[in-house]
Amino acid sequence: MRKINIRDSILGRRTIFDYKPEKIDHNLLISLFNDAAYAPNHHMKEPWKLKVYQDEARLVFGRKIVESYIRLGLLNNLSKEDLEKARRKYDRFFYSIPHHILFYMDKENDAGYQDDENYAAVCAFIQNFQLLAWEKGIGTMWTAKPVLLDEIFIKAVGLSAEKQRLIAVLQVGYPNKIPRSRGRKRMDDSIEWIQSQSDNDERNA
Ligand SMILES: Cc1cc2nc3c(=O)[nH]c(=O)nc-3n(C[C@H](O)[C@H](O)[C@H](O)COP(=O)(O)O)c2cc1C
């Protein structure tokens, strides 16, 4: 496999929608998780927690998500027949991807700020994981939908909305098809360079 550097990995990684059926080797996954855990995190909380759904559990997990979509009204406009079709499509989707990873963290109960820091750290972990995986030819898709706030869904995956915060679901597997990059805007319009006291005063006026 060709060696790629971090810039190649950042620029080359794409969100993957279409996956090969084979699972990622268990030890490779563990080693990617261990490396991703070098993400910055305040007070060394290492707040990331994961549930990895694979094999038969994929369908069960997918169906919990679809039940949540229905509860949240996301499939409201479908006829009974179309809803059944949609269920079968979701079954195929969840079963076609080897691993679905649910990322979550424990809440600190401290009026929020520590939770925000922990949330940010888990996002850094996820991006580390995406890039490390890409380097090994593995694709991912980061999803974060309203389902993650649905208390019934949270309970259905064995967690508690009071004690835990769900952060993302990441689909993982070898890509079948890699989409083209849509590029990014130049950063010029998003940066202010502050160099003198007067620049600073002006902007704070
Ligand atoms: C917090 C977050 C949530 C996302 N949710 C979704 C999603 O629900 N569905 C989806 O197809 N992609 C989702 N994505 C992936 C983005 O659509 C994708 O990163 C973006 O289109 C850029 O494409 P690229 O990752 O190939 O560069 C999400 C990404 C992030 C960071």
UniProtKB/TrEMBL annotation:
Its cofactor is FMN. SUPFAM superfamilies: FMN-dependent nitroreductase-like. Keywords: Flavoprotein, FMN, NAD, NADP, Oxidoreductase. It holds the Pfam family Nitroreductase. PANTHER family: NAD(P)H NITROREDUCTASE YDJA-RELATED. Residues 10-174 form the Nitroreductase domain. This is Nitroreductase. Belongs to the nitroreductase family. It comes from Lentibacillus halophilus.
